[in-house]
Amino acid sequence: MTEQVGDTGRPLRVLALCLGNICRSPLAEALLRRELAAAGVPAIVDSAGTGAWHVGEAADPRSREVAARHGVTLEGRARQLDAADYHEQDVILAMDASNLYDARRLSPPNAEARLRLMRDFDPLAPGADVPDPYYGGADGFALMYEMLERSAREFARRAAAGALGG
Predict the structure, then answer these.
(1) Integer-rounded Cα radius of gyration of the chain
(2) Which residues are catalytic?
(3) Residues 134/60, Cβ–Cβ less than 8 Å
């Protein structure tokens, strides 16, 4: 019998992953936390980056601003993905194919976390990337918010239905 992700009687553990952990993944973390709570799914949600450039920094001001416009607060500090994450998380949701590739490359052989793309759960564009808005303007951050919100809501819906898969 295949165990569903999160079928252990403990909270579902989810990690949002991007490159520097200051734009996409902090917002994804907050939206996943909100949507999972709204769906009644006990969860522990965190975020990290594949790189160490921004470790210890707050989220990008543009991510904080778009989040605040929607009543979401980004409080965490950037950190880098580490080997423990592969054992402490049930699901690692990468923001794009490059992050997913890096997560697979860095994964220890006995990793327990399932690696997926965040937008595998986007009903409008399953499997697409969440483009990195870092070098662009405010429009990219607004578009990122919409993609992440849709994806987080669908992820939570599937988690509540026990349909995340194994």
Answers:
(1) 15
(2) 18, 24, 132
(3) yes
